[in-house]
Amino acid sequence: MLTACTATPVEKIMDRLNEAASAGVPLYGHQDDLMYGHSWNVNVDGAQDFERSDIKSVCGQYPAVLGLELGGIELGDECSLDGVNFKYLAQAAVKHYERGGIVTLSWHPRNLVTGDSAWDVSNNTVVRSLLPGGENHDTFIQWLSRVCDEIELMRGKDGKVIPIIWRPWHEHTGSWFWWGWDLCTAEEYVSLWKMTYEYMMGVRKLDSLVWATSPDGNSRFDQWAERYPGEEYVDLLGFDMYFFGWDEHREAASKYYIDHMRECLASLSAFAAEHGKPIAVTETGCEGLKADNYWTGCLAKALEGFPVSYVLTWRNACDDEKKDYHFYGPFPGSRNADDFCDWVASGKVGMMK
Ligand code: BMA
Questions:
Q1: Which H helix or E strand runs over 322?
Q2: pLDDT tens digit string along 339-348?
Q3: Ligand 1 atom closest to Cα of residue 82
Q4: Residue 110 in contact with ligand 1 by CB distance below 6 A
Q5: Which of 42, 89, 175, 290 pairs as cysteine with 182 (C-beta 3.0–4.6 A)?
Q6: Residue 82 CA, ligand 1 centroid: distance in Å
Q7: Which residue's CA is the closest to the ligand 1 atom numbered 3?
Q8: Does residue 119 contact residue 177 with C-beta atoms inside 8 Å?
Q9: Per-residue pLDDT tens for 149-171?
Q10: CA 116 to ligand 1 center in whole angstroms
């Protein structure tokens, strides 16, 4: 461990993640936690110092990790694809860091060829087209520069950009994003990652980024190493894996989620230990928190005994269309809110200190 006075902010974050992992007490994270919740939204209600959080309303503590999403920044949009104002987003990131938390960023950029969403997989030349020499390379660099501009707004009291777990090109073992498995070759994927790294770290000097991979646990996870960007381009190894099938299969669905997550964790932790990098469950959750005792009965059991640094559940949508089914964290009165408090009280998960 590094001593507090000589460690850089990034080293301190890495220390914190490694400590949580060795203690077997992963930090809890929630996507968009300070931006909106089941029945509120800073865009409408005002930022109010980013005090609101569905998680805090339920258990009295903020999540230790705040996930934020940059989709939409590439075209200079005012708000993200999930309706978050980018000005608020940068402020919330800084606030969370100053409270003692860790920030992680994801990005679902539009399809550069068709102009449609990240989920548009109608064309398998998108990655090739944005690599050096490709017809969309210059546009892509402009898109990436807008990501960097947003990150550069996230400055702490010392004037420096805060440490951020940056998680680009995620779920690439699946084929639902234009950078997914069937949409590019392994070589193209790795070139995309390296080009992103070299621009952000080399050209823009954003050296407070912690680079995290996140293949999808439910799709070709056993092949994730084929598209591993390389030792020097990765700081943290994660994966995304959701709980599916509660309505149809109940016990079998819970068992699959637990057993399969444990298989993924076993594979990742063996590799990560050899390479001296922390591991994390970078996205998970059960939509609508339907599974009985999801927190203590499923997630805690899946994680038990593995050196996991953090586990992040996805967002609590607040728009009328989605709010009653698209949520992954508890809110007052939701299913599994008490079970979440039991999990926190058990000491098996870390919240904001
Ligand atoms: C998905 C859903 C979408 C959202 C996207 C990016 O899993 O939550 O509604 O737009 O993530 O945050």
A1: none
A2: 999 999 999 9
A3: 10
A4: no
A5: 175
A6: 7
A7: 82
A8: yes
A9: 999 999 999 999 999 999 999 99
A10: 15
